[in-house]
Amino acid sequence: MQRSPLFMATLYFILGSIFTYLAVTSVQDTIWNFYTLLLVAMATFDFGLALRLVIYMSRKK
Predict the structure, then answer these.
(1) Which residues cross the membrane (predicted)?
(2) pLDDT tens digit at each of 61 positions of the chain
(3) What is the pTM of this model?
(4) What is the span of the domain harbouring residue 9?
(5) Of 13, 33, 36, 54, which has the fewest CB atoms closer than 10 Å, so is most exposed?
C-alpha cells in the first residue's frame, strides 16, 4: 500500500520537529558537539524532504 506524499510530508515534519527539540535540549556548554550537530543535520534533512513533498503535491495538482 502506497502512502500519499502529503502524509509522508507530515510525518517528516513531525520527525524534524522532534529532532530539533532533542538538539535544543542536548546543548550543554556549546552547540559544537557531535550529538547536537547530528540531530540538527537529521532535522534539516527531514524538513527538506517535507518541503520537497509539499512542493511536489502543489505542482501535481
Answers:
(1) 7-28, 34-55
(2) 688 889 999 999 999 999 999 999 988 888 889 999 999 999 999 999 999 999 998 898 7
(3) 0.87
(4) 5-60
(5) 33
